[in-house]
Amino acid sequence: MPARNSRKIYYENGFYHVYNRGVEKRPIFEDQQDISVFLSYLKEYLSYRDDNLLLHKIGSGELTSKEKRDCVNRIQLNNFFNEISLLCYGLMPNHFHFLLRQEQERSMDILMNSLGTRYTMYFNKKYKRVGSLYQGVYKAVEVSSEEYLLYLSKYIHYQTLVINYPSSFEEYLGRRKTDWVNTDIILSYFSKANDANSYEAFVKGVDFEGLSLVKDLVLED
């Protein structure tokens, strides 16, 4: 029987909660380097890439052999700048959560397969292991209401605050600017002038009923 939420229905302009965790619930982030590498891969996939500029550099004859290889490798990577908006992310020791919107029907699937394969290769090489890193294929749940959209963002950020793990919450507070994280959609529901109605108050406020709305839909044994 397929794992819960492993079968996906793909829509253009669809919002999704995407997540996965380590096989046998083992850690997928052992140290800060692992976190940095994972986020650097996301940045490469989601940031704007000027292929014409890279091709010009490759043909200019001004690059070292290593610089040329780096440019070639960048061009060969999938790029989702105009295809996927990442609204939120949260990393935990043995799993991760994304809230994203895909513009094209299969963009999310290509991104997640590319990211999963690439990070597994890095992780296995570093820790001298073989085999799967994740507990099956990534899971995805369509976000079908505004309520679910908002509480999902809260759920993702609230979890990481509790154990002080990386997330996009700093972007939502305006303390960090990251071009490949789109905060506009969710922040449009909150006040910038009234602290009581701010996004920060929403995330930090205790609302177990709202959080359980998300948790009951996605978590597995």
TrEMBL record:
It comes from the Bacteria. InterPro entries: Transposase_17, Transposase_17_sf. SUPFAM superfamilies: Transposase IS200-like (SSF143422). SMART domains: Y1_Tnp. GO terms for biological process: DNA transposition. Residues 11-159 form the Transposase IS200-like domain. One of its GO terms (molecular function) is DNA binding. This is Transposase IS200-like domain-containing protein. It comes from Candidatus Woesebacteria bacterium RIFOXYA1_FULL_43_9.
